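Support request from a user on the community tier.

User writes: "When I paste my structure tokens into the form, the page sometimes reloads and wipes my input. The last time it worked, I copied everything first. Here is what I submitted, just in case something in the input itself triggers the reload:"
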């Protein structure tokens, strides 16, 4: 979702030819662009959107729609501001808490993500997507039992999501539960036969040959790569 800034956080700079948001009229293609320049460009873009006719209303639905757009554009700061504005106007808007939690996941702010997503499922416990993201936030924090419970709930709410079963399998792997992991991953593959990630995880489970310690260690190595800041 927020590939723009997550990529920037690793490399520290972009080239001028690669950024659609950087400010400055005299940027030379190939020259580095700083974090500050990208944020300035994002800020300019979000203010232009806020001042445009579709977003003049000061109500929760309008702020929510703008937050969704800014999130898709890779502007986490703007998206957070707009989700929070929507929540302030309508504290019962579960979708805004869900979106806020998803942005915090993208920026690796796991605790904030968990808090927003927990509030979202309190308001709407039948939202599969919120349970899924809550499970992801728990996985990132190493709370695998809680992640398992959240993802199991997600599969009950919507039993046809391959990605949910794959991540459920991941929680079992992290706990050294080979049989449960294999079952969840097979469910993912049944739903989406070309799901490469699920196939890779299933192969990892089988390679461990029922050795819980080996499976836990290999899963930890994978999680380190999966959730490191990029």
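"...and here is what came back when it finally went through:"
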């Amino acid at each position: 979702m927020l590939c723009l800034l997550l990529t920037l956080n690793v490399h520290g700079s972009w080239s001028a030819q690669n950024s659609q948001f950087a400010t400055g009229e005299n940027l030379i293609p190939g020259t580095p662009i700083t974090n500050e320049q990208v944020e300035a460009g994002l800020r300019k873009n979000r203010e232009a959107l806020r001042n445009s006719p579709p977003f003049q209303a000061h109500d929760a639905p309008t702020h929510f729609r703008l937050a969704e757009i800014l999130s898709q554009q890779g502007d986490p700061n703007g998206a957070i501001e707009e989700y929070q504005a929507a929540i302030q106007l309508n504290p019962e808007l579960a979708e805004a808490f869900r979106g806020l939690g998803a942005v915090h996941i993208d920026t690796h702010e796991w605790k904030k993500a968990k808090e927003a997503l927990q509030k979202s499922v309190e308001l709407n416990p039948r939202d599969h997507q919120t349970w899924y993201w809550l499970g992801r936030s728990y996985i990132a924090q190493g709370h695998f039992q809680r992640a398992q419970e959240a993802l199991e709930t997600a599969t009950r709410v919507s039993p046809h999501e391959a990605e949910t079963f794959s991540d459920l399998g991941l929680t079992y792997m992290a706990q050294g539960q080979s049989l449960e992991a294999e079952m969840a991953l097979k469910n993912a593959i049944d739903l989406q036969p070309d799901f490469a990630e699920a196939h890779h995880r299933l192969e990892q489970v089988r390679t461990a040959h029922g050795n819980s310690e080996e499976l836990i260690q290999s899963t930890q190595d994978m999680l380190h790569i999966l959730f490191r800041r990029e």
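Agent notes: The reload is a front-end session timeout and is unrelated to the input. The longest strand covers residues 14-15. Residues 1-19 have pLDDT under 50 and may be disordered. Escalated to web team.
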